Every structure is written in structure tokens, then in C-alpha cells.
Amino acid sequence: MRAQFVLSEIGVGLRRNLTMTFAVVVSVALSLALFGGSLLMSDQVSTMKGYWYDKVNVSIFLCNKSDAESDPNCAKGAVTDDQKKQIKADLDKMDVVQAVTYETQDQAYKHYKEQFGDSPLASSLTPDQMQESYRIKLKDPEKYQVIATAFNGRDGVQSVQDQKGILDNLFKLLNGMNWAARAVMALMLVVALMLIVNTVRVSAFSRRRETGIMRLVGASGFYIQAPFIMEAAVAGLIGGTLACGFLLLARYFLIDHGLALADQLTLINFIGWGAVLKYLPLILATSLLMPALAAFFALRKYLKV
């Protein structure tokens, strides 16, 4: 009988404050969707780091005849065969180096045409204008500076470039976007908590006669509070369910279908369904507990039970 009474009171409260309940559901759904999205973004950045850092190379670009005329680093002329052999031998001796690949001018020209064949500049370039290079795979991508220190300024070397530096800028941008999403999420959570507290108080005020009678007949504090707490929890759970739906739909339409980013951006290793599903229980638990606790503390002060 008591359970039936609590359930009936929950239904009455939700219907009586339908507008505010709807606002609570929407704000909880949006804030928790942002919360889940920020967690998934962190996973995505970590996945991309692990994938790309394992593939980055350090490139040692060698001087050619054109560089000898225009680049101060190549003032002593184009790289010689002896210099190339010495660079290769020194690389083979270094503990941080995992593998070394030599790229000729013809190979560099072919790769350039494949990537930038539509560029107006491509038609004016010739293979002898391209740079020979050594592509170095490091055992630890963080050890780039060892290569740079050893080969920058050496005769025949035009420059030493680290692809990791380019990726770091990308990851900084992604992390910045992630923190911005978390800031919006925090703001939405505050709005959701304020709406929950106000909704509970309005509901309690509208039923102050009933709660007064219950207090007079000796009803326990928890028995009086339970319908209000459950109302907030139910509204929050609905919002959490919607947030889970938003995340699943976003993963489905953005990556697998619709925009199909997985097909269009094949160079990016996107997170799988497992990464999404593992956060859904956390979102549902948060959507249930957060409103319930907010209602509990609001009622302790308001009802004075």
C-alpha cells in the first residue's frame, strides 16, 4: 500500500509540474550527453595518439643542387655519396632508431605527385628539385631531439623534421575542444541542478497541506520525502536515457552511417562501439543519483522534517 501511494504521488507530481519536469529532463539529457561526449573525445584522442605516435617518422632531408644556391644550411653544396653513407652508418649505430628508410629524389617526386598532383606548382617541379631523405622510425617517438641534435647542421643535411610536432598541434586543438565541451557540460549541470531544486520545492509547496497532515499523523521524514525524491530521480533517469540515445545515435550517424566519417577519413582510427557502451551505465547512474541527492538536500531544508 505504501509503495502504491509513493508511486501515485510521483505521477501526480510529474503531471502537476509538467513544464518544469520537461525542463529538468532536457537539461539533464543535454548535460549528460556532453559529459559522455567529453569522455568519448578523451578516448578518441588517446586512441589517435597511440595509433599515430606509433607511425610517426623523423625525416632527415638532404641538400640538393637547388638548396645549395638558396639555403644557408646547404652552403657547402649538395650532399655527396660519402656523406650519405656516413649519415646512414651513424643512424644504424643509434639505440633509439628502430628502422631507417632511404627515399630517392624520384621516389619523393612520385609521392609528391600522388598527394599534390592537382596543385599548379606540381607541373613546374622536376625530380632533381626534390630532396633525398632518410625516414627514421624511432623506438620511442619522444626521442626526436636525439636525432635532431646529432644531425642538424651536419654537412649535406638541409633539415631534420619531426612529424610528431605536427600531430602535437592537432592533439592540442582536440584537447582544447574537449575542455570547452566540459566547460559547457559543467554549466549545464549547474542549470540542471537548479531546475531540479526549484521543481522539488514547487512540488513540495503545492502539496504542503498533504505533507502537513502526514507530519501530524506521525509519518516518518523519509516517507514524506520519498515521492519528491523519486520524482526528481525519474525525471533525471528519463534525461539520462535520452543522453544515452544521443550518444548512440551520434556514433551511428557520424561515424558508421550518415556522414560516414569512418569511410571518408580512413586515416583516423575511430573509437568502436565498446567505448560508447562502457560509459552508458555511468551516465544512467549519474542521471539517477544526481537528481535524487539534489532533491534530498533541498527537502531537508525546505520541509524541515
TrEMBL record:
<dbReference type="InterPro" id="IPR003838">
    <property type="entry name" value="ABC3_permease_C"/>
</dbReference>
<comment type="subunit">
    <text>Forms a membrane-associated complex with FtsE.</text>
</comment>
<feature type="transmembrane region" description="Helical">
    <location>
        <begin position="270"/>
        <end position="299"/>
    </location>
</feature>
<dbReference type="InterPro" id="IPR004513">
    <property type="entry name" value="FtsX"/>
</dbReference>
<dbReference type="InterPro" id="IPR047929">
    <property type="entry name" value="FtsX_actino"/>
</dbReference>
<keyword id="KW-0132">Cell division</keyword>
<comment type="similarity">
    <text>Belongs to the ABC-4 integral membrane protein family. FtsX subfamily.</text>
</comment>
<feature type="transmembrane region" description="Helical">
    <location>
        <begin position="21"/>
        <end position="41"/>
    </location>
</feature>
<dbReference type="InterPro" id="IPR040690">
    <property type="entry name" value="FtsX_ECD"/>
</dbReference>
<keyword id="KW-0472">Membrane</keyword>
<comment type="function">
    <text>Part of the ABC transporter FtsEX involved in cellular division.</text>
</comment>
<dbReference type="Pfam" id="PF18075">
    <property type="entry name" value="FtsX_ECD"/>
</dbReference>
<protein>
    <recommendedName>
        <fullName>Cell division protein FtsX</fullName>
    </recommendedName>
</protein>
<dbReference type="GO" id="GO:0005886">
    <property type="term" value="C:plasma membrane"/>
</dbReference>
<feature type="domain" description="ABC3 transporter permease C-terminal">
    <location>
        <begin position="183"/>
        <end position="301"/>
    </location>
</feature>
<keyword id="KW-0812">Transmembrane</keyword>
<dbReference type="GO" id="GO:0051301">
    <property type="term" value="P:cell division"/>
</dbReference>
<feature type="transmembrane region" description="Helical">
    <location>
        <begin position="179"/>
        <end position="200"/>
    </location>
</feature>
<feature type="transmembrane region" description="Helical">
    <location>
        <begin position="221"/>
        <end position="250"/>
    </location>
</feature>
<dbReference type="Pfam" id="PF02687">
    <property type="entry name" value="FtsX"/>
</dbReference>
<feature type="domain" description="FtsX extracellular">
    <location>
        <begin position="56"/>
        <end position="160"/>
    </location>
</feature>
<keyword id="KW-1003">Cell membrane</keyword>
<keyword id="KW-1133">Transmembrane helix</keyword>
<keyword id="KW-0131">Cell cycle</keyword>
